[in-house]
Task: structure prediction
Amino acid sequence: MTRPRGLHGHLLDTLGAALTSGEYPAGTVLRIDELTAAHTVSRTVAREAIRVLETLGMVQSRPKVGVTVRPPETWNVFDPLLIRWRLAGRQRVRQLNQLAQLRAAVEPAAAALAARTATPQQKDRLREISDQMVAATDIAEFVTADIEFHRLVLTSSGNDMFAHLAHVTAEVLRGRVEQHLMPEHPDPTALSRHVAVADAIARSAPAEAEQVMRTLVLAASDEVDRMLG
Result:
């Protein structure tokens, strides 16, 4: 979901952060009138923010009852907005660990599939992106290329469900930048592993692509752990 802007986006971020932090536990009833007064917004803005939270499975609106907070088990935890709120809140470490586990389960398998199914154009593009990462002069440039690299591996797998998770990796990488959990300069070993993944996929070597990708994502998780102390 695209991040909303303006008053609606500000209120949505405020409520989303409060919900993911546990400030409003499951069963809490939020009332539109109270939200408009507390946040100095119109009823239209408040309703629009609530509508988005409903689509995420975080709240439920009922006539004469109000807006009830739903348990976390019902939330769409793969949505970029929810990932962003959790990464910025008190559950940051838990969220990073869970996302690292997800990536370790999915991305090596995706790399192996990509080595079997990627088109010549996709293989060439992966090599181009890995070269861009090596040539990056700052961490922002590196992360932009890194997001595209992992997205292309997932989409090149030919598995629509893997491809749908590309935004998860993107949010992890953006979140690491926002939370200052990226090294000042790209790690040379990480760069060489990206090049090796691209090369293995280009050579249609699925076992090698899977092994190198697993090493890459696990090393990234270890790097975050070290930076968190």
Observations:
- The longest strand covers residues 59-62.
- The two ends are 32 Å apart (CA to CA).
